[in-house]
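#random but structural
TW: two for the price of one
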Amino acid sequence: MEREKLAIGAPTPLCEPCAEVLHPFLPWLTGSLLLLGPWPDAESRARWAPAAKVFTTADGADLPASTRFDAVVLLGLLSHRDDGGGGALDATIVWAQERLRPGGRLILVIANALSLHGLAAGSETVGERGFPSLEGRPRSDGARLPTRAGLKQSLRARGLVHQDWWFPFPDQGRPLSLIAERGLARPGGFDPGMLAIGAAGPDPAASAGTLFSPRRAWAPVADLGLTGDLAPAFAVAASEAPLPPDDRLAIHVGLRRRPEFERLVTFSEAGSRIAVRRARVNPDLPAAVAGVTNLLPSETYVPGPLWAADLEARLAREGWCPDAISAWAGTWLEAVSRGFADGAPLGPNTILPARALDAIPKNLVLGPEGKFIDLEWDLGVPLDAGHLAVRGLVTALTDAPDWRPGGAAGLTLLDALRALLPRLGLALDDAQLADRLAREGRFQSIVSDHVIERGLGWAAATQLPVAGLGRVGADPRAALAEASAEIARLREENAALRAARAVDAAAHADTERESARRTDRVIAHAAELHRARDHLQDALDARRTHFGLRGRLPLRLLRLLKGTP
């Protein structure tokens, strides 16, 4: 591949995409290409344009007006060409089209003025307030971001009526998934929202002070048919001539792995079904590392929600409840038993097939019996149910965006594992739990090519995102201050209650002592009366004897002595 630099100068990037965002257009990147914007490194260029002659320019200032290309790739805008009317975007499209050969293709990568993440953050651009592009004014870099409808109109106005749209997630810089516009129509039950949620990763809403949770919002946004309008960015190919047919619905790049395990997943229409194909990005490298192998399974797309999403829905309503979460996990383990242990009960040491390593909740599609997808790993060593249970629970619990009502501040991953595993019939003592965590750490280290420690200390230090300190839209400092104030108020209230109880207890003790004193006085008085009566009786008996009287005192006199009528 030949590369020529036509102009040297500071680039004016509106975004900084890497090679992944251009994956959908790889078959078209042949012949002569002009790249405007940040220059990919040599390795990236070799990936996305191996058969092309690539020219790069920072601002097009030294580009001869007569030079024409088979394709122009716009990774930035010519802000100095803003004519004050349509803005830098329209001016750049005009400039690029003038440098296309007849039937050439313009490829544009640009952020969305109406992105869901921007709406959640309350700002079009990090560090700036408001949405200048929607308000009809340029941003600080002189550009105005387009909306989906606005960009379509701008391209059509220039005669570029044949368009192929892709939407990168979570952004155009390092997309994990790219969804084609044709995939938004949900052919064959395809769910674009699932890829958008998967690319979002753990929700940063609790710590970023966003107005709402984008991760939770993507599913209803997809159901409403707004995924494309609210996508983070656009990757568009446009031409005056028809574009080649394409049956791909989405491309999934996934999280970064060591080169041996990097793979590309494509979702394509195949008649009445959707084919899911996985291919190695670097087929010349060894397929196994330290005994771990990626199986690269190709399969038919299975429509339906994932079981991990059910946990997130439960946590949004109920928060931390060991019995409720163990019931959810029990359904998952029943599916594991049916699929890999002939329905037998699972114990910590039950041996499972090596391919069951990825039979975790986020790969279980809901249905009458449930079906696992994307079983891509062979660990290379025996897999037991204890390791799978720990792996599945750790992934599900740490991926949950936040835990609403019922959450208790200070809940750790270790707390959750100790509470859940016995309820699932998979009780592990600390030594056994540490062993399973270490196995998972070894696997993660091999796949990522980075040392990843997993142990009891790590689990004890991993806080789960419970409610109160993780409310969506809350400033974390305000949340902490509010929590501290609530704790102080409760302490004062408890101190007042304890003081009131002490006063009541003292009054009750005084009452009991006074009652005891009165009782003692009554008893003493009664005893004195008895003694007086006996003394008088003795005196009367003596007088009767002296005077020769017989018998006891008359009844009336006795009653009188007793104080009764």
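TW: number two ↓
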Amino acid sequence: MTYQVLARKWRPRTFATLVGQEHVVRALTHALEQQRLHHAYLFTGTRGVGKTTLARILAKALNCETGITATPCGQCSSCLEIDAGRFVDLIEVDAATNTKVDEMRQLLDNAAYAPSRGRFKVYVIDEVHMLSTSSFNAMLKTLEEPPEHIKFILATTDPQKIPVTVLSRCLQFNLKNMPAAAIAGHLARVLAEEGIAAEGDALNLIAHAARGSMRDALSLLDQALAYAGGEVTVAAVRGLLGTVDTGHLLEALEAVAAGDAARALAVADAMEARSLSFDGALGEIGRILHRVALAQTAPEAVPADWPDRERVLALARAIDPEDAQLYYQVALHGRRDLPLAPDEYAGFSMTLMRMLAFAPATEGGGEARPVPEARSAPAAQPRGAPAQFDGDWPALARALKLVGAAKQLAERSELAGWDGARFELAVPSESRALADRSYVERLKGALRAHLGRPVEVAVTVGAVAGRSAAALAEGERRTREAEATRQMDADPFVQELVTSLDATIESIQPVGKALPS
């Protein structure tokens, strides 16, 4: 007996068995029950979400021998012939291969004749956006005022390419991408009917890989059955898809959290040896970090059936919320830049090293990584050993790991007060924009990371005494410039050039060292 692929064998034949499109089913069901039938319908959505399937079910509902109904019997000759694809009054047209205006005119000429068998002659035009402009123009009149026995059902993956004159003559329904949970549930029901065992996590992997398409999910399930030769297991699906075991990626993130570069890169080496997908791995790292952030900000929302729940919760305790957000952004950028990397291994391993480079010093076990030291900055302290603030705010401001406006706030502010737990800072009126709450929060986070304990920060706008890091740096620059000018004025060779050549000195740039006298 010829094998029938699952996507065809398990194609829904009634509204009740259609998965994930309840909003469309409800509208069509009410219309059929109330006999409020439009002459043209447009179904939009990505591939494999049920556009053509829905068109065939609607054709059965319109032509079932029991009458116009939302629950076609599936047993009469009309229903059976539509399911088998041989109903003479269901005309399915692939617009991708029938784009010429002559073909459309011939099709519309035949529309004038009454149906041979059914109640309605139903035209299903798939990928209708592929029709030429002339073809659209040819069908406009018929689409607007078709004979009573004609129904048009248009389907497309790209409704933006359909002329608005056509859109305005149709009832439009947008079919949604199917949730992974709905896909996995449907796959489980299919396998139960087929008498095939499967692991739940394996079906979840297939559902995520299908990206909202039930047809793609069923095709992947067919591949998994062929690959596994029996029970659909997680190992078989991972081997088929080239996906990485989440455990390996959790280990990589645990290594990053601990500052263990060798351990993190060992994961990348193991992935390369197995020819696994680095693009998929970065996507999965982003998914893990999303779960980590969820556990940190809304722990009550953490479901009990999370995969690797305990390890994710442990990561949520080990990583600061700010670091989790940083790692998430690094993972997204790493995945985006992967095609630009010398090779995928380099791109993935560089992403891990970027996380390690941007991460602050580690807490507890493991060797602390020093914060890059700025000029005159005190040595960085591990989080587990709180640092002491000696009152030198400019030095501390230069040592903080900040960028952008938050860095300017740190370097342009002055210390107005400090009681061991709260920094009171002041900025001049011309820098009042730096007192924005978001910049203050970033400064507070950097101080907490640097000092190893929670602190509060308050910023006021007003008079300052010129003791900020930026003011001191400007003072030092001016001192060096004045000293350079003095040395140039005292240099006999320079003065001889000025006198003999009638030259002028336009500018003097100090280079950090005194000129030899």
